[in-house]
């Protein structure tokens, strides 16, 4: 796994390793005071050797009592319950690169207020909702970002839908 001193990434790494090997969750630690007490977050797992996505699950808003509990739950989900990928196996653990994105609250936005390097997007139409994190490799334009978010939600990108934007602090 990636070498880091970041407490959120270390927690996600410990969670993935412990859950994959033992099916146990680590206890939620106290986090440094400079981190929010509660927030939505995404845990993204890539294969370190190839850079391929291996799992990514998160929450738009806080759903747990603490950010540490949010990271633990999302790390387990990203490593074992992302429907796009099989569950991570123990032999893969040494070849993982894990990132944690902590989300700021989303705000309504217009297309001309978006920037795929700075802002993530949430698109909504009825009960359908799609999210795309900011600053993703290969997503260079607002149009690409919105098209991918719409595809994830099953929304026609040529139709009407609501847009929200949000910023993140990426922990690596």
Query: Class of the largest domain, according to the CATH hierarchy?
Result: Alpha Beta
Euclidean distance between termini CA atoms: 11 Å
Poorly predicted ranges:
none
Which strands sit side by side, in order, in the main sheet? Answer: 2-1-3-8
Instruction: Write down the overall geometry.
Output: globular
Rg, Cα atoms, Å? 16 Å
Q: Output the CATH topology of the largest domain.
A: Glycoprotein, Type 4 Pilin
Helix content: 10-25%
Global mean pLDDT: 97
Task: Count the beta strands.
Answer: 8
Order of helices and strands: HEEHEEEEHEE
Textual characterization of the structure:
The protein is an alpha+beta fold. It folds into 2 domains: 97 residues, Hypothetical protein ph0010, domain 1 (Glycoprotein, Type 4 Pilin, 2-Layer Sandwich); 65 residues, Hypothetical protein ph0010, domain 2 (Dna Ligase, domain 1). Helices cover 24% and strands 25% of the residues. The chain has 3 helices and 8 strands; from the N terminus they run αββαββββαββ. The strands form 2 sheets. A 4-stranded antiparallel sheet has the order 2-1-3-8, covered by helices on one side. β1 and β2 form a beta hairpin. α1 crosses α2. The chain is globular, with a radius of gyration of 16 Å.
